[in-house]
Design goal:
20 strands; FAD/NAD(P)-binding domain; alpha+beta
Length: 362
């Protein structure tokens, strides 16, 4: 008896984090046949992340390159998804940053005189203007166009969306089971035109893409609860505090480069609690509700990895968005979907051709 005919799929997406989810959504909106495969783990990088959107970051207050393009695209996509699912995902929220040194204050004054920073930097305030600051604080300034994405809710809705269309498998893709020498690629009962890896830091163990210089970093985020008054806004203070309803708040985040084992550490707990208690002494009695650990898929040059394998033209990567996925992925998912379906050119800054010399010949 002949074997059953293979099911034909145009795009096999490995990983249903924010990158794989938004790319899958865009491709399905174009009428493409998509299959997303993910093991449905409770704790993943995208599900751990607070989803903060913050156009200006770092000690030197550097504006994310291209934010004037990325931010409107992100807002438009999240609004479209909210209308489709009937749920709000993007919460635009006031954010302030507290000066940690005189040097930061001077850097803010410098940036305030740069016209291209004006849409993102608000006014300075003194410590006595905030009920949660003590007199020793240097004060801070408002950051405009900030907020956070409810990533868990969005990923749950998109998983259901894929499931309803027979476009989702709860499982993993064994790389050894991918028959890439076939045209099209064969995997299980499927024939696949293009395989796209969107599986975060797992890329470093991918036999076809491990040559890309991923620089993953583990981080921890706590959810706490208090009877004390909380700031009404997101507060950046070297760490960050995100107020939630019912006296809860998120506190983050730490950075750890080794080991990458997704296990909470005493060092991270001490770091977060010391920072919070030092800045907000009245929150010392806050009760810990949940610890989450994730591994950010950062890259050597801080730009994501998009493109096609130089030797295997049916294998692709869409990865490496680090800690800015909520802001970057909406625009790059549109860019990459057009590259995949219409042959549009990728920006040189993200095309993996920039590292092609490091790719093994096999």
């Amino acid at each position: 008896m002949d074997a059953s005919p293979k099911k034909k799929i145009e795009f096999l997406i490995v990983g249903q984090g924010l990158a794989g989810s938004l790319l899958g959504w865009r491709l399905i909106q174009q009428g493409k046949r998509v299959l997303v495969v993910d093991p449905c783990l409770k704790q993943t990088t995208s599900r751990t992340a607070a989803g903060l959107i913050n156009p200006v970051t770092g000690k030197r207050l550097v504006k994310t390159a291209g934010v004037e393009t990325y931010l409107p695209t992100a807002k438009a996509l999240y609004e479209r998804l909210s209308e489709f699912f009937g749920v709000s995902f993007l919460h635009e929220k006031r954010q302030v940053r507290l000066f940690q040194s005189e040097g930061e204050l001077l850097q803010w004054e410098k940036r305030k005189n740069q016209a291209d920073y004006d849409p993102f930097l608000g006014e300075q305030f003194a410590a006595d203007e905030k009920h949660y600051l003590n007199g020793e604080s240097l004060g801070g300034f408002e950051q405009k166009q900030c907020g956070y994405l409810n990533t868990v809710s969005l990923l749950d809705k998109l998983r259901h969306f894929f499931e309803e269309r027979d476009s989702f498998i709860n499982g993993t893709v064994d790389l050894g089971a991918l028959k890439i020498d076939e045209q099209p690629v064969e995997w299980r009962e499927y024939q696949v035109d293009k395989v796209i890896f969107c599986d975060g830091y797992h890329l470093q163990k991918n036999r076809w893409f491990s040559w890309l210089p991923l620089q993953p970093a583990q981080g921890e985020i706590f959810t706490l609860e208090t009877d004390q008054s909380l700031p009404e806004e997101i507060v950046q203070f070297g760490k960050w505090l995100l107020p939630l309803p019912n006296g809860q708040f998120k506190l983050g985040a730490t950075w750890q480069w080794k080991p990458l084992d997704e296990q909470p550490t005493e060092r991270a707990a001490s770091e977060l609690f010391n920072a919070c208690n030092g800045q907000f002494p009245h929150l010392k009695g806050a009760r810990l509700i949940e610890k989450k650990v994730g591994i950010r898929p950062g890259t050597k040059d801080k730009n994501p990895f998009l493109g096609c394998h130089p030797n295997h033209r049916q294998l692709f990567v869409f990865n490496g968005f680090g800690s800015k996925g909520s802001l970057l992925i909406p625009w790059y998912s549109e860019c990459f979907s057009r590259y995949l379906t219409m042959g549009d050119i990728l920006p040189d800054s993200v095309d993996i051709k920039r590292y092609e010399n490091g790719c093994p010949a096999v």
